[in-house]
Amino acid sequence: MYIGKHVITRPMLPLLLLIASLPNAHAAEPPAPPTDFRAEDVPGDAGTGIDLFWTLSPDDEEDTKPRKVLRYVISRKEADSDEKTQYENIGEPTYRVNTFRDSNCETDVPYLYRIEAVGQENLTSTPVVISEPVIASLQWFNLERSWFAVFVVLICGSVIVFIEMARKGKKLKVRKIAGLEAITDAVGRATEMGRSCLFVPGIQDINDIQTVAGITVLAQVAKTTADYRAHIEVPTSRSLVMTTARDTVEAAYLAAGRPDEYNEDDIYYITDEQFGYVASVTGKMVRDKPAACFYMGAFYAESLILAETGNSVGAIQIAGTAMPTQLPFFVAACDFTLIGEEFFAASAYLSGEPQQIGSLKGQDFGKLIGGLLLIAGCLIMTLSAYESRGVAPDEENKTFLQSAQTYLKENILGKGGFK
């Protein structure tokens, strides 16, 4: 027998007839649809999100090869639209996924959602549509973050309370900062020796918060030099920092009643280039041998060069920075170092203004509360783990510590809020 150009021998005929008589058992079939399809408005958002949930298709729960379910197709349309309006595809989550968030909703618009399971050869299941339209609504408060709001109110409230206390004249105790207390001694030593004071405000521009903090310390140093009639020099690596430093030093001399002794040429610009700047400054240090050196601001690799050069000429050195990588060099080579938050607290410490002192005390009070809560949380987690000893606790027979651990994880650290 001939079929086209192929010859079919007689022994092959029974086999071909058998294959032709078999039902199409291996042909792809559409998967079963998912169930329990529902939609909910996202809580605590701006009214643009709707969460979708469903139970996986029965064919998706089976680990078969090839897979019967490859993905799900989710589509939507406005509930108020015409019945002829087609559903719009908004996402295709993969198999074994039973949640989806639609983040492109319009506020107060009702939507209908439809889901289909897609299997081999792009065969789709029977569509499942949610029973009722869902609306994305705007919520003014996200109750999932209730505990965060409590902590914010507590800390901000403590700042306000301490500011009011300072304004009413109550003496607020602030821990002494040795580096700031030593400014008077350093300037006095320079005056006795007839040598200058050198102030380096870092190498960053005026938009850096560390530079601003350094300029605040400069105001106090300049006022002290004006009182002692010492000579101060401020080399800068940014033109705007130079302008700000000049205004600060001039104001300090005016406040001290010695405006005629102010010389703006003592505050000068060198270069923006990092090592060109530090080469010029260290060269001047070797030639003039200042009696006191102040390094206040943001520093990088030049910190060690400056500190070692100042140490070699025998100057009293006071440094302050919030750069963790440079603090070891200042600690090793300087007489006093303002570390991190001490540097930022300098303005409140030196000025004594009620707003700044109260703000500083309020922040410290907030840190104290945070530290106590951290210790309490660690104790609860540790004791609860010891009590459980690797055994998962029964929900109905949880101890106080186990319940506290769950509440801490799900409500305070999680999104449970006050629930």
Give a short overview.
42% of the residues lie in helices and 17% in strands. It is of the alpha/beta class and 419 residues long.
Strand order of the largest sheet: 13-12-11-14-15-16
Strand content: 15-25%
Q: What are the segments in which pLDDT stays under 50 over at least 5 consecutive residues?
A: 16-25
- The SSE string, one letter per element, is EEHEEEEEEEEHHEHEHEHEHEHEHHHH
Structural class: alpha/beta
What value does the Rg take, in angstroms?
37 Å
Q: For the report, how would you describe the main beta sheet?
A: 6 strands, parallel
Helix content: 40-55%
The coarse silhouette is elongated
Distance between the termini: 80 Å
- Return the CATH class of the domain at 178-344: Alpha Beta
Number of helices: 12
- Reported CATH architecture of the domain at 178-344: 3-Layer(aba) Sandwich
List the helices and strands and how they pair.
Elements: E1 2-3, E2 6-7, H1 13-21, E3 35-41, E4 50-55, E5 71-78, E6 88-91, E7 99-102, E8 110-118, E9 128-129, E10 134-135, H2 146-167, H3 178-193, E11 197-200, H4 209-228, E12 232-236, H5 239-255, E13 267-269, H6 274-288, E14 292-296, H7 302-312, E15 316-321, H8 327-333, E16 336-339, H9 341-344, H10 346-351, H11 354-388, H12 400-412
Parallel strand pairs: 11-12, 11-14, 12-13, 14-15, 15-16
Antiparallel strand pairs: 1-2, 3-4, 4-7, 5-6, 5-8, 8-9, 8-10
Helix pairs in contact: 2-11, 3-4, 4-5, 6-7, 11-12
